[in-house]
């Protein structure tokens, strides 16, 4: 309710502001109205509309001071704005007015920002470059959807007057892409990263290995990629990332302030590795490559020492390639590994992750073993099932294991929206937009202390998804809802308000070429 009042107040002020504006000197179309200051996803922590809007013109500069990192964010903003506005938008150190990106101490944390907009300009202030970058995403959404087009549009380019103060609720706002079941090229991954950046995600979890494909070159075990990466679900050619490819993904993600979290799933989901090296199998016989979609049939050989040589080599090489703090070791659906073996395996493997300087992340089955100190468990269960498992996760959380929430019946983006969705799976049920959005990560798992919840992550499994259009159709419009669950204060959570803001994203996606599911739960503007 609070937000509704804010919006109403905002509209009144904006009507007044538009009056001031059109009586001023700027050549304005009288119909021009800025978008409401709060109409952003994820919902900002605080929105105070007021005053005249700022108008971006051919004279606008992007001022960044002398910080190289602010300069980079400024160039990114200019790259967004130049094609559609047709303006030069020079990125400069100094000058008056315009768009200013300012690094300064203040109550912004590592990722928060403040955006002040008025007749004289827009200033985004943050303590860290990530905050400036997230503020830029807010600025982008305050401009008309046509700003996202890659040809010159008429404008005008108005930013509503007022102040946005914004900090994220959670430090972990992730998206996982399964590049194993179907392989996605570096450029396709970058395209997804750009979509994530729009909504202030900060983790890109890459599911780099599974039964159907091993996707990262490991020098000490070259057949993992050359053989284990040579196919995918359905028997296509698959593929893998060279080390330079992977570095390029990491670099690109970092340029959008996302940290790559690489996953090597073990001890199950390992057929591609087992097929590549006979020695890794307990019986010494390599199975054939697998292109189906069953799960739970493969396991590394827990009793063989070569298994740990393999794990050490893979983790060492992957850790060396990964500047981020985390390394995900999977641990889900190890149905072909006995419980005792699973515990033995995790007891040996987790210290290897620490040895190479990384923090363990595992699917929540890791809590059935002994999570290492500081480890994170990624919960992917469902409502109404697995009470014992939920209790185990809660106990681990009380003992210090951080929890990342990915409930499959809420934010698995590969679940069908409804019976008619042509792509995706439905083992966790159908997940329409409201169901995906309408839950509280802070109160989701009983018995988990609120401060154990590190955030949310939306996995996108690709058994049925073969190309970027497929990814778009399943991710949109649910992905922004996950971003909001991770970023916005619980007090802003309101389905009716959200669905209005979501509807306004439709034209933006049209402009960006994002093909989305036109959910009947949202009143999309006419095409
Ligand atoms: C999973 O969906 N097996 C993590």
- Which outline best applies? globular
CATH class assignment of the largest domain: Alpha Beta
pLDDT < 50 runs, ≥5 residues: 1-30
CATH architecture of the largest domain: Alpha-Beta Barrel
Strand content: 15-25%
What does this structure look like?
There is one protein chain. The protein has 527 residues and is an alpha/beta fold. The protein has 2 domains: 20-166, Chitobiase/beta-hexosaminidase domain 2-like (Chitobiase, domain 2); 172-490, TIM Barrel, CATH 3.20.20.80. It is built from 16 helices and 19 strands. The strands form 4 sheets. The protein has an 8-stranded parallel β-barrel with strand order 10-11-14-15-16-17-18-19, surrounded by 7 helices. Strand 12 (209-210) and strand 13 (213-214) form a beta hairpin. Helix 8 packs parallel to helix 9. The two termini are 30 Å apart. The relative contact order is 0.11. Acetamide (ACM) binds at residues 332-333, 363, 380. Acetamide is lined by residues 332-333, 363, 380.
SSE blueprint and pairings:
Blueprint (H helix, E strand, L loop, with lengths): L1 H21 L23 E4 L4 E3 L5 E2 L4 H18 L5 E2 L5 E6 L9 E6 L2 E6 L2 H14 L14 E3 L2 E5 L5 E7 L7 H13 L4 E5 L1 E2 L2 E2 L8 H4 L16 H13 L3 E8 L4 H6 L28 H17 L4 E5 L8 H17 L3 E5 L12 E4 L7 H12 L3 E4 L2 H4 L21 H5 L15 E8 L7 H8 L3 H9 L7 H9 L1 H8 L15
Parallel strand pairs: 3-4, 3-5, 5-7, 10-11, 10-19, 11-14, 14-15, 15-16, 16-17, 17-18, 18-19
Antiparallel strand pairs: 1-9, 2-8, 6-7, 6-9, 12-13
The site of acetamide (ACM) has 4 residues, from loops.
